[in-house]
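To whoever is covering the structure queue this week,

Two jobs came back overnight. Logging them here so there's a record in the thread.

Job A:
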Amino acid sequence: MKIFIIILFFITIPSQTLYSQQGWISKNIGDGNFVSINFINTSTGFAFRSNKWLMKTTNSGENWNGTFLNMVPILIETGMFYNNDVGIFLGTYVFITTNGGVTWHQSVPPSMSSLWLKKVIMINETTGYACGTDYDLDLPVDGIISRTTNAGINWVSSYPGGFDYFDVIFINYTTGYSCWLELVKTNIVGVTWNYVSSPFRSMNEISQIFNDTFYVACDEGYVVKTTNSGNSWISQYTGVNVNFNDVFFTNNRIGYVVGDSGYVFRTTDGGNYWTQQSTNTFRDLNEVWFINNDTGFIAGDSGTFLVTYNGGVTSLSQNNQSIPEHFILHQNHPNPFNPSTKIQFAIPKSTFVQLTVYDILGREAAKLVNENLSAGSYEYEFDGSGLNSGVYFYKLEAGEYTETNRMVLLK
């Protein structure tokens, strides 16, 4: 069965030229909820929206193509691509493509009555898993994990048990985990699953797994950590009572957790301490994905789409004790510097501000500020670790005001 797919629009996200120091940049794309995002390599990524849209980038998130999935009879719950050809998404039904989305095959995992599927993955081109709830008004609710070995044409019930399952993840072909109120594990390709333990919290998403260590995003502001494959847990409270929807670690120490009401927290010490990051949104954030230690994306409700090029760290601080009378761009200090320096400027009124660093040939080396700012005095701590030694110029553009100063990086 051939299914026609219409490409309706093209979306651009700003270039990645060293947007270092900007934190999370908000990009509102349409009004549909983004429910998932994943990259198959550092260039190619996919994002699903609940209102039947599939977004794709082939240049590390700078530009996104939108494809309307007009054959879908339901809202999309989640989805992912295993490679350029094999992709999968679900709601009540499961849809799989093996030709990059040109056509989609619809199937339904086995059920006693009705399914509400929450998570789906493909671990290779033919084998995948879907988990969620098998429910009926007259029967107890059961959690369900289903498995396909022929690219979604057929599914078998892999594990009916528990109450519900929100996530399923595999660390290799044979070993995987699934969770909600309990953690279950398989060592034989999902044929059978065994109860491991429970941290007595609602577990929503499992992070990347580092040997026996992984993290789980939970409700009520908690991230739980295990260092022995889930046999015991360490509860880590972030300080806010909010439900966390996803967790992602770029290595065994640096990780991010995202949740409702725009909350993002980052750890740099393996989860012992979590720092809140600014997102400038109060919308629920559903999934987070990083393609390297610095560049990451967050998918959220109502078209919320966030991107960072420096791990979400913001280096711009404001001093509003007094409103300046004039535009001012101060000389950076220290100068020369290695590797960081502070740049101070002042604006007497609210306006759109750009602070840009150029090399000796006039090429843009870093975009530091690119946003509307209120009147006040500002200080930006610029990290030049990614640049070569030499002479650079930093330029402030605020309304009709423009000024450029010279600085020297010595390594």
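Job B:
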Amino acid sequence: MGFSFHSLNVQGLKLGELYKGKVIGTVMGMELGEISGVQKTLNQFSITDTELHQLDALNFLRKTDYF
């Protein structure tokens, strides 16, 4: 699901409240400053265990073992 890690989307999904595991996602095409913003947004919701990949969704599924 693509939602750009926007704070309203993170809040709406209640990631920090309902989910206490690692958040794994893609940041394809994002620059370092944007990725830093994603990390800050996630930290704002007490999400500190993250793994962000510079891959599109298909390659993420092909190159990782999360599928």
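Note for Job B: The beta strands are 23-26, 50-53.

Please reply-all if you pick these up so we don't duplicate work.
Q.
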